[in-house]
Amino acid sequence: MHNKILFVEDEEDLTLIVADTLRGQGYEVITAADGIAGLEKFKTAGADIIVADVMMPQMDGFSMAKEIRKLSPSVPLLFLTAKSTIDDIEEGFEIGANDYLKKPFELRELIVRIKALLRRYNTSRSEDIRFSIGQYIFNTTTQTLSLGERSIELSHFESKILEQLATNIGKTVDASELMIAVWQHDEPSNRNSLHGYIHKLRRMLCQDPSISIINQRGFGYMLTISN
């Protein structure tokens, strides 16, 4: 069974090139030229992954994604964007994007990212990935942090950062590594955002006094659990 890709893009030439390339890789490809058409095609035909431009007529990619997330909280969504500011990228992730690719892009990179998202999605459908953090349970698949009966839903960024820290409990995670894991590149402008998210995570984990996220000045952050 071939994976089905919904490709939503208003540049006709780019759509033809990408669709032909992806079909050559064995994917089934459905195309749409704007967000309204993309949303309708998702409703009628579904998709295993959605690749969508941000700037489109009728309905932009972000607005389309908000509607799609109401229908499917988990279908992988990759944004194509000529915008490169952290605010734009952050907005996309907060809406529910799984990845983004800046225009212009190499077709080979697009294929690599599609394969990675589909592999992660197919794995997560059969097995949730969980971490025990003190008295908390952190589910990276559902992006939830649970303490007893109480559960908090994390944002994409909060989940990514906590996953890196939880994978390395008791070890310092370099700030650059965290930024690359979350934003895919290390820029000075990201450091304040990173510190802000760390502060939010500390508040979320404050019900268990044995948990600390320590700021190792000049290096990064370390998640510790005292006995």
| CATH architecture heading of the largest domain | 3-Layer(aba) Sandwich
- List segments where confidence is low: pLDDT < 50 over at least 5 consecutive residues: none
Rg from Cα = 19 Å
| Name of the CATH superfamily of the largest domain | Response regulator
Characterize the biggest β-sheet. Answer: 5 strands, parallel
Shape call: elongated
Q: Looking across the biggest beta sheet, what order are the strands in? A: 2-1-3-4-5
Strand content: 15-25%
SS-based structural class? alpha/beta
Q: What gap, in angstroms, lies between the N and C termini?
A: 50 Å
Number of strands: 12
Q: Give the helix tally.
A: 8
Give the CATH class of the largest domain: Alpha Beta
Please bin the fraction of helical residues. 40-55%
Descriptive account of the structure:
With 227 residues, the chain is α/β, with parallel strands linked by helices. The protein has helices spanning 12-24, 35-45, 61-71, 86-95, 107-126, 156-167, 175-183, 190-204, and strands at 4-8, 28-32, 49-53, 77-81, 99-102, 130-133, 136-139, 144-147, 150-153, 172-174, 211-216, 220-225. Strand 1, helix 1 and strand 2 (28-32) form a beta-alpha-beta unit. Helix 2 (35-45) packs parallel to helix 3, helix 6 (156-167) packs across helix 7 (175-183) and helix 6 crosses helix 8 (190-204). The chain is elongated and about 60 Å long.
